[in-house]
Amino acid sequence: MSRPDRALAATAAALAACTAIVAGALLEGYSHLWHPLALPGAIGVPRAGGYNLLLFGLPGLLLAVLAWRLRARLPGTGLAPRLGAAMLLCSALAWAAQGALPLDPADLDAAASRLHASAWMLWWISFVAGATLVAGGVRALRAATVAAWLLVPGLAVLAPELLGAGASQRLAFAAWFGWMWRAAGPLHP
Asked: How many CA atoms lie within 13 A of 13 on its CB side?
């Protein structure tokens, strides 16, 4: 059962990474180190719809399927890990929602930008809560969860001041995709 799940996680990560790389190359003046990952999908940017679909929408839906399947693979681990899997589903859907709610670069305080930021915040908060609850019942995920717990909120919230928005967001997203890939493997309650 873990092989198809790992393929879901790897496909989602590869799709998001390739989309970011290609879109970044097509957008003049764009820097992966400094610019937010959502900028090529912002309102008014050429090809934004396709970018949002391939970076946020499809990978988010693939990881939502993975979270749903993970919940089914957790019988006998108690209620907390299964609630954690539901939180991981929320995290994946929040990732997908970022594509449906693009930034408005002309007005970062506009409703569109606030909705995008809310989906981004829901993404990382529900991931940290979900991963923590799942790891409470699955010994094999505890080390990966501690690493992700330290990396994702730190990179998503604190590191933009130190590393810039681009680098810190990409590292946080890589930690999230990596944790989901690890969770798709064999589980040992």
From this structure: 21
- Please tell me the distance from the alpha carbon of residue 171 to that of residue 105, in angstroms, as a whole number: 23
From the number of C-beta atoms within 10 Å of its C-beta (0-12, 13-18, 19+), residue 117 rates as middle
The answer to whether residues 63 and 9 touch, using CB atoms and an 8 Å cutoff, is yes
pLDDT digits (tens, 9 = 90+) for 51-60: 999 999 999 9
pLDDT single digits (tens) 70-104 = 998 887 778 899 999 999 999 999 999 999 999 88
Residues for the chain: how many in total? 189
Cα 5 versus chain centre, distance: 16
Nearest-angstrom CA–CA distance, 9 and 30: 27
The CA R_g of the chain, rounded to the nearest whole Å, is 16
Half-sphere exposure at residue 43, Cβ-oriented, CA atoms within 13 angstroms: 14
Distance CA(52)–CA(47), nearest Å, equals: 9
Q: What is the pLDDT of residue 171?
A: 82
Structure token pair of residue 166: 């681009």
Q: Could you tell me the CA-to-CA distances from 86 to 24, 56, 107, 127 in Å, in that order? A: 33, 19, 34, 10
If DSSP codes are grouped into helix, strand and coil, which group holds residue 77? coil
Q: Is the pTM of this model over 0.85?
A: yes
